[in-house]
């Protein structure tokens, strides 16, 4: 083990810190993390930790969620400029205007949103539980923000009227049907797994639709051996580690989230050393956001 990793492990132990990493992080960051997962898994983990310090290797809304759920803890975001472009596609002010137009609708917000947007929402969801969350609501009209593709995917499984905002994930939205067809030609017989943030016409061509951790569970548990993976390429490292003997190919080699890649080991080390940059959420915003997140976590 090199000196930088050794120093990170030492600092982590000295300061009672835990490192959480998203499945899209770089391989070396995933390998140094105590827990790697998708948005739902990371939110659940952040809500139950005993450690004094949480180092969040992901993007800004993920660290905000941890800070909202654990306001007494120190939450660090090693790359403070690691933002989520989709989260920036809707503001709390825009959501308030939307709520005025549809006062009878329930507001479901994807966790890929700011704390301010969460505070204006009735309940949060992730790609892993969006269908379940929407089905749990008594309202017939659902304002679904900000991901139009996830909203349209949810609409396939409910009779409720889904009113999606026109946001999107640039990584998944630019995957095309032509990419799927080419991947099938390159790897005949391989299962095609895609993320629900993909366009409807891409989803229609897939064998399965899963969140990132759902993909990992499927690859590890099924008897199939080859898979075409339609999400951010960082997940391939974890699949190789967790599902030995399986062959996983990227649906698109261009499926790279540049902001997820802004975290590196030197930034993790510096963050542990200085306990900065720290992510905090004002109490008035955190209270509303916490309610929406907790409602999601209470749905089983």
Automatic annotation (TrEMBL):
<dbReference type="GO" id="GO:0051539">
    <property type="term" value="F:4 iron, 4 sulfur cluster binding"/>
</dbReference>
<keyword id="KW-0662">Pyridine nucleotide biosynthesis</keyword>
<feature type="binding site">
    <location>
        <begin position="110"/>
        <end position="112"/>
    </location>
    <ligand>
        <name>iminosuccinate</name>
    </ligand>
</feature>
<dbReference type="GO" id="GO:0046872">
    <property type="term" value="F:metal ion binding"/>
</dbReference>
<comment type="function">
    <text>Catalyzes the condensation of iminoaspartate with dihydroxyacetone phosphate to form quinolinate.</text>
</comment>
<keyword id="KW-0004">4Fe-4S</keyword>
<keyword id="KW-0808">Transferase</keyword>
<protein>
    <recommendedName>
        <fullName>Quinolinate synthase</fullName>
        <ecNumber>2.5.1.72</ecNumber>
    </recommendedName>
</protein>
<dbReference type="GO" id="GO:0008987">
    <property type="term" value="F:quinolinate synthetase A activity"/>
</dbReference>
<feature type="binding site">
    <location>
        <position position="257"/>
    </location>
    <ligand>
        <name>[4Fe-4S] cluster</name>
    </ligand>
</feature>
<dbReference type="GO" id="GO:0034628">
    <property type="term" value="P:'de novo' NAD+ biosynthetic process from L-aspartate"/>
</dbReference>
<comment type="similarity">
    <text>Belongs to the quinolinate synthase family. Type 2 subfamily.</text>
</comment>
<dbReference type="GO" id="GO:0005737">
    <property type="term" value="C:cytoplasm"/>
</dbReference>
<feature type="binding site">
    <location>
        <begin position="195"/>
        <end position="197"/>
    </location>
    <ligand>
        <name>iminosuccinate</name>
    </ligand>
</feature>
<keyword id="KW-0963">Cytoplasm</keyword>
<dbReference type="InterPro" id="IPR036094">
    <property type="entry name" value="NadA_sf"/>
</dbReference>
<comment type="pathway">
    <text>Cofactor biosynthesis; NAD(+) biosynthesis; quinolinate from iminoaspartate: step 1/1.</text>
</comment>
<keyword id="KW-0411">Iron-sulfur</keyword>
<keyword id="KW-0408">Iron</keyword>
<feature type="binding site">
    <location>
        <position position="169"/>
    </location>
    <ligand>
        <name>[4Fe-4S] cluster</name>
    </ligand>
</feature>
<feature type="binding site">
    <location>
        <position position="212"/>
    </location>
    <ligand>
        <name>iminosuccinate</name>
    </ligand>
</feature>
<feature type="binding site">
    <location>
        <position position="84"/>
    </location>
    <ligand>
        <name>[4Fe-4S] cluster</name>
    </ligand>
</feature>
<feature type="binding site">
    <location>
        <position position="127"/>
    </location>
    <ligand>
        <name>iminosuccinate</name>
    </ligand>
</feature>
<dbReference type="InterPro" id="IPR023066">
    <property type="entry name" value="Quinolinate_synth_type2"/>
</dbReference>
<keyword id="KW-0479">Metal-binding</keyword>
<feature type="binding site">
    <location>
        <position position="22"/>
    </location>
    <ligand>
        <name>iminosuccinate</name>
    </ligand>
</feature>
<dbReference type="Pfam" id="PF02445">
    <property type="entry name" value="NadA"/>
</dbReference>
<dbReference type="InterPro" id="IPR003473">
    <property type="entry name" value="NadA"/>
</dbReference>
<feature type="binding site">
    <location>
        <position position="39"/>
    </location>
    <ligand>
        <name>iminosuccinate</name>
    </ligand>
</feature>
